[in-house]
Automatic annotation (TrEMBL):
<feature type="domain" description="Excalibur calcium-binding">
    <location>
        <begin position="82"/>
        <end position="114"/>
    </location>
</feature>
<dbReference type="Pfam" id="PF05901">
    <property type="entry name" value="Excalibur"/>
</dbReference>
<feature type="region of interest" description="Disordered">
    <location>
        <begin position="14"/>
        <end position="33"/>
    </location>
</feature>
<keyword id="KW-1133">Transmembrane helix</keyword>
<protein>
    <submittedName>
        <fullName>Excalibur calcium-binding domain-containing protein</fullName>
    </submittedName>
</protein>
<dbReference type="InterPro" id="IPR008613">
    <property type="entry name" value="Excalibur_Ca-bd_domain"/>
</dbReference>
<keyword id="KW-0812">Transmembrane</keyword>
<feature type="region of interest" description="Disordered">
    <location>
        <begin position="123"/>
        <end position="143"/>
    </location>
</feature>
<feature type="transmembrane region" description="Helical">
    <location>
        <begin position="43"/>
        <end position="63"/>
    </location>
</feature>
<keyword id="KW-0472">Membrane</keyword>
Length: 143
């Protein structure tokens, strides 16, 4: 050992051999906190909560800004899913500007949404064989 190393060890014994020293309580607590913060399970849970928080925030904003009462606003939003849902929540048929009216549910563009859906279902004969959907008969097709 050189004189410089001996002098350094005498002046700063804590720097001499850090591997032999036990970590302090503060260092242990910092390490536990760091391990919890960087836990893979915690990170996955935080990332999974983002869509849930976004959806609940959007729903809350819609209910507060809707011109309808909260229950009616939720039924109006549910009617957006289609005419079957609009009939089940009691908002079909509906006129333009009324609760339950969505332009995508107004197939004949007469200003009344979900008026023709039950009539078409009643006219269609029931068959025992499952019908195959024709190609290109998707509900939503880009123009």
């Amino acid at each position: 050992m050189s004189e410089l190393q001996a002098l350094r060890q005498a002046l700063y014994p804590e720097l001499a051999e850090p591997a032999q020293q036990a970590p302090s309580r503060r260092q242990k607590r910092a390490e536990r906190t760091r391990a919890r913060a960087l836990s893979p399970l915690r990170i996955v849970m935080l990332l999974a909560s983002i869509p849930v928080l976004t959806a609940t925030t959007a729903l809350g904003v819609f209910i507060r800004t809707s011109p309808y009462e909260p229950e009616l606003a939720l039924r109006h939003l549910a009617a957006l899913a289609g005419c079957e849902v609009a009939h089940s929540v009691g908002l079909a048929p509906s006129q333009v500007g009324g609760p339950g009216y969505h332009a995508r549910n107004d197939t004949d563009l007469d200003g009344i949404a979900c008026d023709a859906a039950p009539a078409l279902a009643a006219m269609t004969p029931a068959s025992d064989t499952p019908s195959r959907q024709q190609p290109g008969a998707a509900k939503f097709v880009r123009p």
